[in-house]
């Protein structure tokens, strides 16, 4: 048995290294951009890996770094301040226009992209329409999803988007990651985990701080009515003080060429005036902000050779390995198990009940300092982060990116000649990238202290058995 287990991990490591070598070989060119005929004012990356590298620059992405990647004309970023020269300036009310100018609001703030692109480094690389070019494809992030076309068919993308906005129909993805709107335009199901099955309720358990609960399940089928898209946002809010509230989100977005999962919490106060299109709330410094994550389950899909044999039931491997995660500043001690027929939900439920229940299930003592569980199955690796916490004082927002990476992207070869050799090569190279992780389930507790008073949001995604929190501050 030990020989089989060792062989499995050796092969898994070999596959990962082999994929890394292929990725490096195909994406070895330096990060750069070039002018694309007919399109100005966008940033153009040679590859999706180049895009990811820039997004993940340590700290905030500076203007001087962004300026290195401009192509043609005057690049206007989502993070630039809105001016009266904006083509839809007259759509704002007088109060909105005055607020935009007085507060120097950016397109990111004024157009609601805080919900669509939580990562501000990514937002800095998009123009004010939410667009970026990668290789030979143009991507536009919208409330409906991410539109993609090759750069030669930019006008087709505009036409498809306008038709969607004018339609009263629902968008149907049938559990696919994207749908084809025309021979040259694709729409990615970027916000698939946001749907109308959300429900919410308030509680103040046992004298604890007031909390508002949100719960949702993944649903990739008919996920939103176009006419109501602006009423169904990923960011949740709780106004627990008069004209002051806590905001937050647990998100897992697929932009086609890039994906990201994470969480953020912020505090805001209500603006004065008549607001028709503009967000009527302004970020403010909170006394303290806090993010607590419980039983967050990450899913990593891969494929192992069919010759690999695995034990059918739960098999304990190790309780001494340490893993690195963006959810904690320190490495987390993990329990590793594997098996062919493991139901990860059974493990997650046991972990939620405590170390004794988890120990009984895997038939091995789990130490109290364990912070994570890894479950290896033939085609999926699950990582369960049992609990982690982040806290900051005197700040407007805390954002934590759990995981990010590049996805297989649709090149113009695939769009125009799906059966060509070049298209087959693009698909093969894309699928050989190391797969990315997504949030499968979990709970986040997002709390803020404003004017000495606490309040918070609890967001569940497919979280087993729910339950209320009693948080005493």
Number of strands: 23
Task: Give the DSSP E fraction (strand runs of 2 or more residues).
Answer: 35-45%
Strand line-up of the largest beta sheet: 9-10-23-22-16-20-19-18-17
Give the overall silhouette: globular
| Chain-averaged pLDDT | 75
User: What count of helical segments does DSSP give?
Assistant: 12
What helical percentage do the residues reach?
10-25%
User: What separation lies between the terminal Cα atoms?
Assistant: 50 Å
Which parts are unreliable, with pLDDT below 50 for 5 consecutive residues or more? 1-38, 194-198, 218-233, 423-435
What is the CA-atom radius of gyration, in angstroms?
Answer: 23 Å
Secondary structure class reads alpha+beta
Tell me the major beta sheet: 9 strands, mixed
Task: Describe the structure using short key phrases.
473 residues; alpha+beta; 9-stranded mixed β-sheet; 23% helix; disordered N terminus
Structure summarized in a few sentences:
The protein is built from twelve helices and 23 strands. It starts with a helix and ends in a 12-residue tail after the last strand. It is 23% helix and 36% strand.
């Amino acid at each position: 048995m030990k020989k089989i287990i060792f062989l499995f991990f050796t092969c898994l490591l070999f596959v990962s290294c082999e994929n890394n070598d292929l990725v490096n070989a195909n994406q070895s060119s330096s990060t750069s951009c070039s002018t694309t005929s007919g399109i100005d004012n966008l940033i153009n990356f040679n590859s999706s890996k180049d895009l990811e590298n820039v997004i993940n620059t340590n700290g905030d992405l500076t203007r001087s770094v962004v300026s290195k990647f401009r192509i043609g004309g005057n690049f206007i970023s989502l993070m630039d301040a809105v001016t009266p020269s904006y083509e839809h300036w007259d759509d704002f009310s007088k109060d909105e226009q005055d607020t935009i100018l007085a507060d120097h609001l950016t397109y990111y703030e004024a157009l609601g992209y805080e919900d669509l692109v939580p990562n501000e480094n990514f937002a800095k690389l998009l123009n004010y329409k939410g667009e970026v070019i990668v290789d030979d494809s143009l991507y536009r992030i919208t409330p409906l999803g991410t539109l993609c076309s090759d750069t030669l068919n930019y006008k087709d993308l505009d036409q498809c988007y306008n038709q969607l906005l004018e339609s009263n129909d629902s968008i149907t993805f049938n559990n696919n990651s994207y749908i084809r709107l025309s021979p040259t335009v694709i729409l990615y199901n970027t916000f698939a985990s946001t749907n109308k099955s959300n429900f919410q309720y308030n509680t103040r358990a046992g004298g604890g701080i007031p909390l508002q609960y949100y719960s949702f399940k993944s649903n990739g089928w008919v996920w939103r009515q176009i006419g109501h898209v602006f009423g169904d946002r990923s960011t949740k809010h709780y106004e627990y003080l008069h004209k002051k509230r806590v905001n937050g989100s647990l998100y897992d977005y697929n932009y086609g060429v890039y994906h990201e999962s994470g969480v953020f919490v912020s505090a805001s106060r209500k603006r004065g005036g008549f607001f028709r299109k503009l967000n009527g709330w302004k970020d403010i410094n909170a006394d303290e902000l806090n993010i607590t994550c419980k039983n967050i389950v990450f899913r990593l899909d891969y494929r192992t050779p069919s010759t690999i044999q695995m034990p059918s039931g739960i098999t304990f491997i190790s309780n001494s390995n340490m893993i690195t995660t963006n959810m904690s500043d320190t490495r987390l001690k993990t329990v590793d198990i594997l098996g062919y027929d493991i139901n990860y939900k059974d493990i997650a439920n046991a972990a939620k009940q405590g170390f004794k229940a988890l120990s009984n299930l895997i038939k091995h003592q789990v130490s109290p300092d364990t912070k994570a569980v890894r479950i290896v199955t033939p085609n999926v690796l699950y990582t369960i982060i049992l609990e982690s916490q982040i806290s900051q004082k005197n700040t407007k927002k805390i954002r934590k990116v759990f995981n990010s990476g590049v996805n297989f992207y649709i090149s113009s070869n695939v769009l125009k000649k799906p059966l060509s050799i070049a298209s087959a090569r693009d698909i093969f190279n894309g699928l050989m990238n190391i797969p990315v992780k997504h949030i499968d389930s979990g709970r986040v507790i997002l709390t803020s202290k404003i004017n000495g008073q606490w309040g918070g949001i609890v967001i569940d995604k497919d979280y087993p058995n729910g339950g209320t929190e009693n948080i005493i501050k």
